[in-house]
Amino acid sequence: MDKITISDLEVFAFHGVLKEENSLGQKFLISAELYMDVSAVAKDDDISKSVNYSDICKEIEKFLKKNTFKLIETMADRLARHLLISHKPLRKVCVKVKKPWAPILMPLDTVSVSVSRGWHQVYLGLGSNMGDKEANIKKAIDLLDKEEDCRVIRVSTLRITEPVGPVKQDDFLNGALHMQTLRTPHELLDLIGRIEKELKRERDVHWGPRTIDLDILLYDDQIIQSEDLTIPHIEMAKRIFVLEPMAEIAPWLRHPVLDKTMTELLEIQNFLQEVELHSE
After folding, report:
1. pLDDT above 80 (res 183)
2. CA 170 to CA 172: how far, in whole Å?
């Protein structure tokens, strides 16, 4: 990926744990590595297709003067996220904050913190079998897309599917979506929980009916196994109602554990279903 680098931009601002730092202010040195694809820019020699580093410098100064943070760790994190959200071409940002006048009463050059933030590629499963199913799913998608650190990229066709499990209930409307997010997997899980709660999702009965069901299927190519989160979703490779919409929006995408594309996984499940039907 291509990179634009800004090194040691001087900004006088009011950040720090001490009260005097917030009132008197001090100098900070900001460096930023901005990752993006510059091939179209280079081909046309057109600055309007790029990220203007002069504007970025002014924006960094404005952001740091407008806000006050106790920790340079927080400052670096918030600045990196702000730049990514504000400039669509950016895929990743590395920010380094140097503090030359750190109040430690010892001689030093600078204290610094570096952070890297970027857009993660995420796929979610969508489902509803209570009330206005389509409206429930569309509302959930809208709530996701309204978050400034989430971008819904593509949504599959919604399909009617029979429920799985022993509980008698109405058919589901299922689909999948591709989104980008700056959130960590657990931060995204928390957001999904809040959206499901807002849409009156009840968890009284396992495999039971629900107004909305949002599942993290894939998060980049990460493999996560924790008490409250498993990625890739443990059942996705076995569920045709998940694989069909995934094969529609990302047929080339590979399962990071099974190393098979969504299309290949769907073909396997369709074959197994045919075998099961003929054996009955």
Report:
1. yes
2. 7
